[in-house]
Amino acid sequence: MRVLIATAGAAIFAAIVLYAYALYLRRTSMFFPDRFPIGEWDRSRYALEPRDVHFTTADNVRLHGWIIRSPAPDAPLLVWFHGNAGNITSRAPVAEELARRGISVLLFDWRGYGRSEGSPTESALLDDADAAYQFATMQANPRRIVLYGESLGGPYAAYVARSNRACCVVIENSFPSLRALGNALYFPLPVGWLVPRALATVRWLNAAGLPVLVMHGRRDEVIPFRLGQQLYDDLRVPKEMLVSDESGHSEIPSSEGERYYETVARFVRTSCH
User: Fold this and answer.
1) Is residue 22 over pLDDT 90?
2) Mean per-residue pLDDT for 200-218?
């Protein structure tokens, strides 16, 4: 009996320690913002000069972004939910190239990034994602809005897609759920099982029912390729996948070049016709 009690006590203690560790990881290892003035903020350097925009979240945090308008008539508007590092300035060159190919782009910084106010948390970014979408609907018809989720931005794009109108979703180097990511990164510790419903990218995309383009690099050192493949395999919606054999994390636009731009532009044109 004493052995059973001791074993049960040890198991409970281990579970408490694991839960505390999972909470610690969620608070300390998810966000690496570059705040202004880090980055290239001179908008005049772009041939398609970005326009400064601001909008406010439901909890009254003021966010900053850039809109890069395509010269193409009736261009769809891509809302870029970026990853957990950097800020909009590191995504702007890619956004400009998309605009040259007929896709306007709304880049915005999460709270605590770039020129946006506040500090990032997992739940607060849901408010940021909602606010960005609502602002986008004032710039374009919702049926012409593309939701683009890069890395950590993937589940937030999926979250918006679940409850709002859009024409399609693009997911770059992301993951099927926070549970799957946690279990993969911290194996053999099952930390992902402590967050069974958090950042449920696949579940939210399947609920949305929109066409999805999944892109992932086989050399991704941050989010393993197998998670991108799992995300794609578990989707029950119209879907496509671009696999880059040479790309690391968030390197597909630079390493694939024209193949990346042609794939995204074609997918958007087909989905937003």
Assistant:
1) no
2) 98
Between 262 and 22, name the one with better pLDDT.
262
Q: Would you say how long the chain is, in residues?
A: 273
Reported as a pLDDT band with limits 50, 70 and 90, residue 93 is very high
User: Does the pLDDT of residue 19 top 50, yes or no?
Assistant: no
Angle at 134 between CA 67 and CA 180, to 5 degrees: 95
What is the rounded CA–CA span in Å between residue 83 and residue 130?
16
Residue with tokens 């946690």: 182
Structure tokens of 176?
A: 């099927």
Report strand pairing: 145-150 vs 77-81.
parallel
Structure tokens at 104: 């306007």
Q: Check whether 204 has a pLDDT greater than 50.
A: yes
Residue 12: its H or E element: helix 2-28
Chain position carrying tokens 């040259």: 100
* Alpha-carbon span 83 to 109, nearest angstrom: 10
CB burial of residue 149 (10 Å; 0-12, 13-18, 19+):
buried
CA atoms of 181 and 230, how far apart (whole Å): 11
If you average pLDDT over residues 67-80, what whole number do you get? 97
- Give yes or no for a contact between 205 and 161, defined as CB atoms under 8 angstroms apart: yes
Residue among 85, 96, 239, 247 nearest 151 (CA): 85
Name the band, by pLDDT with cuts 50, 70 and 90, for residue 190: low
Measure CA 52 to chain center. 21
